Predict the structure.
Amino acid sequence: MKYRKIIGIGDSHCGNFNGIRDNITDLQLGPITLYQIAKNNRENIRRDIPFLFNSNIKEKINTEDVLLLYCAGEIDIRCNWDKQINKLGKNEDELIKKLIDEVFITLLPLHKPFGFQSIVPAVRKEHILIEDDTYPTNGPNEDRVRWVIKTNSYLKQKCIENNCVFLDIWESYADEEGHMRLELSDGGVHVLNKSLVIEQIIKQNL
């Protein structure tokens, strides 16, 4: 399908879409997490992610030739899952499945087409030059690599099951061990070299 417009929407990683082409843009919502989207099924989505109910935004995006690509999950994994899994003892596979299932329950009735950009590779903690204390890097490097890979895999599975787009940029930025390639990071948790993202978008969606 040829989309008239592609909008990356979500956390700061959707900035990958900004300025690539006239018909590709981003809508950054701050440090939004998969958990915030998923917990609509338990709490009040209008309070936590009101953009989904903003009539002006929905009017712009809720058409069949506008693709909405969500970017979320990097903050969940980097900041929160070490506590949930390593300290509180939750099963990581069950946590991932339950969270992603609830994300799709939230999003499927709201608009189509939509999809997800894969979560970027986990950055080695020692490679983060400037860390925001509000959103710390928690947990061993190897755990965060594994959680990213498992979450991307299940996100992709759910996208296929629901005829949604999964834009996989992980492989383009990951090293042999699954961490973000140092030369392609911004010194923090974001990627550089948008041309890699452009190539993926053109190949899969335009």
In short: Residues 141-161 form the longest helix (21 residues). The mean pLDDT is 84.
